[in-house]
Amino acid sequence: MASGLGRWFPSAFTKASAAFHGAAAVALAWDSSLLPIVVSGLVANHLILSTVGLVPRGSLLGPNITRLPDAAAALGHVALTIDDGPDAAVTPAVLEILDRYKVRATFFAIGSQILAAPELAREIVRRGHGLENHSATHPHHFSLLGVRGMTNEVANGQRVIREVTGFESRFFRAPAGLRNPLLQPVLSSMGLRLASWTRRGFDTVERDPSRVRGRLLDGLAAGDIILLHDGAAARTRSGQPVILEVLPSVLDTIAARGLSTVTLREAFS
Ligand SMILES: [Zn+2]
Q: Which residues are catalytic?
């Protein structure tokens, strides 16, 4: 569908919501006694808008990548995406595992984490992985931000990656996948594409590696985008970051099923 690059093309849902606001203004100008009805309609519309923004894999608010393109799927490709780092205690071991399997992943890094571990961010790029934008500070209220707040989070995340590593990110992943209708025009103006995932293991809260593995691997298919975390990783009962426990078996299974791993950039180039 629309590439979303350069120009903002509002989704049909966003357009309908805007049209509804226009109609509400006309109705009020025509007859102010309609106020209670108009207000409840607008409240309902905003509830819907904020609710659909809480569906990470939804596309009602604009284009949202949740799988690789058909051409990549036909080649048996999957993508491994790793969020919330870099993390000095976890990322070096993740990079070693990826090297051992000769796999390239896509890291959705947080600007403040990059500033705390700039050498690790450069190492990610040096080893050929993708380094993409996961906001400047990963605020938990990201979906409540206005245009200025969202622009700052996206632009500063982009700037930190560029200044520290020289890498030009092309994808943005919203913190926790949550967003609002203001995000798409912000991303379009910066030439970024919103990327979510096909399957995630909830490995920032799930301490049982076998359950994370099950969520990632049961039904795994060509074209899937997998989400794991090197930053904010939950620890197993023995104190090990879950991703380190899970990653080798995920990569073994990918290979055993005849699939291969590409970065998002490779899949969408
Ligand atoms: Zn995150």
A: 83, 229
